[in-house]
Amino acid sequence: SDIEKGTYPHYMLKEIDEQPFVIRNIIQQYQNEDGNLKLEESIRQAMKDTDRIYIVACGTSYHAGLVGKQFIEKMAGIPVEVHIASEFCYNMPLLSKKPLFIFISQSGETADSRAVLVQVKKMGYKALTLTNVPGSTLSREADYTLPLYAGPEIAVASTKAYIAQLAVLAILAVDTARAQGLSLDFEPLKELGIVANAIETLCDNKDEMKKIADEFLSTHHNAFFLGRGIDFYVCLEGALKLKEISYIQAEGFAGGELKHGPIALIEKDTPVVALSTQKQLDLNIRGNVKEVVARGANPCIISMEGMENEGDRFTIPAVHEMLTPLVSVVPMQLISYYAALHRGCDVDKPRNLAKSVTVE
Ligand code: AGP
Fold this sequence. Notes:
alpha/beta; globular; 16% strand; single chain; binds 2-deoxy-2-amino glucitol-6-phosphate
């Protein structure tokens, strides 16, 4: 590839380290001279005109969509459904009267997503693509594009594109809220600046992540990721990251679902990563940790500054409660990276996987 790794042993590590700059670049790109949000008027109008948004994506981009649903529903008050592209294509849900489709795709070339785009365009609907590659197929064939400005992502495991997707979705949600005259107690560009600094702090302190990966994951064949609410979605992403590059069987679970089945899998020393960044869910998720510990699990609690308890393994710097996924995903990325490294896996090119999946 003509993108150089420089002194980095892997593209993945380089791309993780680039994340603070990606966020700062997005802040610049989506800002007018007067400091206000800069978005095409036609996109604003499409967001205003719709009665329901359908987000369609695969893999990590789908996980970003799950968080994006929370942003758009909570800030802009528009109902959002999030669909896996390959499922949507052959099991189309009933559509509302004025649907708007949002495709999220790092590459803009994912065949499953494109198949849905072709279908909904044929039906006469409008589509917006969030992509890292303007000019890609999904960008050209949609009505509107919001670029991610993450720079080329080479590693198969997506990292910086995910946080870019989240940042652009937050900007879109705030802009839509404002266009509808809703007042928000939220300055997105300022809050994203705080996020960039928080990610930088994490990237400057990787030792603890390496330790967790070495002690905790390198000898196991399975791992749990527990979260509630927005943390649950980050757990899905953390588990995907770990499985794709380290080949450890990993699953993200909603804390409350444990007792409905998954807890049967807990054995002595099963690694359980639990994420707690939401004050109103903190007691509940810590209750879930107690349940798995009582069955022998080995817990690793990741909490947020200001919410830490004794025994927490790691604390992320405090950021706005809506934007925690952009920061809490970073320890997950790093733990996966070091676990893969420890197990001698090919981090940038994991077996059986392609960077962009251009077959359905
Ligand atoms: C992420 O780490 C994966 N390799 C994969 O899930 C990816 O996110 C998915 O294939 C979607 O790709 P896209 O964003 O380019 O459409």
